[in-house]
Amino acid sequence: MQAPEKPENEDIRIAALHSLNILDTDPEERFDRLTRLAKRLFGISFAMVNLIDINRIWTKSSQGIEIIESPRETSFCGHTVLGDDILVIPDALSDQRFCDNPFVIGDPKVRFYAGVPLVVTNGSKVGTLCLVDRTPRTLGDEDKELLRDLGKIAEQELVALRMATIDDLTQISNRRGFISLAIHAINLCKRLKKPASLFFFDLDLFKEINDCYGHAEGDRALIGFSRILKKAFRESDVIGRLGGDEFVALLTNSDYESSNLILSRLEAIRKEYNQEVSRGYEILCSVGIVEFDPHRHNTIEDLLEEADRLMYAQKQTKRAKSLQ
Fold first, then answer.
1. Contacts 24+ apart (CB under 8 A), 64-68
2. Last residue of a domain, one of 122, 145, 164
3. CA-to-CA distance for 199 and 291, rounded, in angstroms?
4. pTM over the 0.85 mark
5. Domain of 230, in residue numbers
6. Is residue 307 helix, strand or coil?
7. Rounded to whole angstroms, how far apart are CA atoms 250 and 182?
8. Is the residue at 212 inside a domain?
């Protein structure tokens, strides 16, 4: 068996994939509709939309087979993204790269494979739309063109999905994107019995920035704070802008002590940012921090509500002190 190599732009490709906020999300009709259509049009055993993560193939949609993820090293799709066009394997048993592949010699006994790379806006090939059959077959020119067209539709759905879950201004998750990712992160912490913490931020004196410097400067402050968050938190943490000047961050495998260390790091980064940018005002914030408790927090909304209350209490305390 020949394991697929990594593309030269692997780091950029993985970053592009993760920016879609799609991994480990629930099935969606927009992709299921596409794989149903592909399976019916080509009359094959399986049709899948697969995304190629660091060490795994994660299946967003599948027809004809129940699969969630599989090792990247045994994948056909890992080979597909090394090229620019469709990869066709008429008979895997006759192909030295795959003849002893566990998916060929064992279930589901793959014989035919055809996959088209799915390319996002920066040119990264993040996954494939693929056709799989249990009997050898070929793919004619018209069929290849049809598969390319279906691949373009899948790419459009990926772009639409990203636009629906990413905040246009700050390029971090919007409310919808944050909640979707946070639900999965919380469920994972529940299963593994790991701690989690939620940070709820609100910028202080943000109205004054808009009033004194204009809304364009207010937008720059929001962008600046999102950059502070991205620098302060880990790649595994989920950060988002709920709307206006409200931001959130969900930390997995993080207890109260870890949360305080990260908060100290954020404060240092915030102060450093204010000194470097020096735009006549400082980016200031209030924050509420809540540790996830499965007995008290049934939903992510419960966490958000409690953290919001704590944030508001801190903001009120600051205002009271400023009036003394």
1. 64/39, 64/132, 65/108, 65/132
2. 164
3. 9
4. no
5. 175-323
6. helix
7. 7
8. yes
